[in-house]
Amino acid sequence: MDIFIVIVLCLVGILLVLVEIFLIPGVSFALIAGILFGVGGIFYAYSRLGIVGGTIALVLMLLAFGVTFIGLIKSKALDRLALKTDIDSTVASSASINIKEGDTGISVSRLNPIGKVKVNNITMEAKTLGEFMDENTEIQVVKVSPVQLIVKSLIKN
């Protein structure tokens, strides 16, 4: 009966640690509980089965964890859970093709230094060169890149 208890505690510990590694991000209840179950199983083995039984249980548990971990990594079982989509878009949409350097527009929201602007009847997210602009400020496009629209204020302070 003692061997059965050790096996169950160690298997539950291994299962919870693997769930934590492969399914749950961060350190959560599963990892802590898995470690406690594993250590509890080994402690129980040492206290009930002696030094030899405890050492055998420890080696077998580590071996079972390693084999299962490597088996899960090499198997295709986890591929069904993995995200396989690629993100190939950028912040600037295809509408930004109609916006050129030197175009003027107006800020739709406060630029702190990032906000919304309207240029050529296209509303986009834009970034300033470090300055802050209030809403409805006239702006000029300084640079258009695939990832951002950089603007400056036309109003001189």
Descriptive terms for the model:
OB fold (Dihydrolipoamide Acetyltransferase, E2P), alpha+beta, 157 residues, 2 helices, 5-stranded mixed barrel
Can you describe this structure?
- The protein is of the alpha+beta class and about 160 residues long.
- It has 2 domains: about 1-80; about 95-155, OB fold (Dihydrolipoamide Acetyltransferase, E2P), CATH 2.40.50.140.
- Helices cover about 45% and strands about 20% of the residues.
- The chain is built from 2 helices and 5 strands.
- β4 and β5 (about 150-155) form a beta hairpin.
- α1 crosses α2.
- The chain starts with a helix and ends with a strand.
- About 20% of the residues are buried.
Spatial shape: rod-shaped
Oligomer: single chain
Strand content is 15-25%
Strands side by side in the biggest sheet? 1-2-3-5-4
Radius of gyration, in angstroms, nearest whole number? 30 Å
Average predicted local confidence, pLDDT: 86
Major β-sheet profile: 5 strands, mixed, barrel
Number of domains: 2
Helix content: 40-55%
Helix-strand topology string: HHEEEEE
Poorly predicted regions: none
How many helical stretches? 2
> How many β-strand stretches?
5
Q: Structural class, from secondary structure content?
A: alpha+beta
The N- and C-terminal alpha carbons lie at a distance of 84 Å
List the helices and strands and how they pair.
Layout: H1 2-22, H2 29-74, E1 104-107, E2 114-119, E3 122-128, E4 138-144, E5 149-153
Helix pairs in contact: 1-2
What would a concise description of this structure say?
With 157 residues, the chain is of the alpha+beta class.
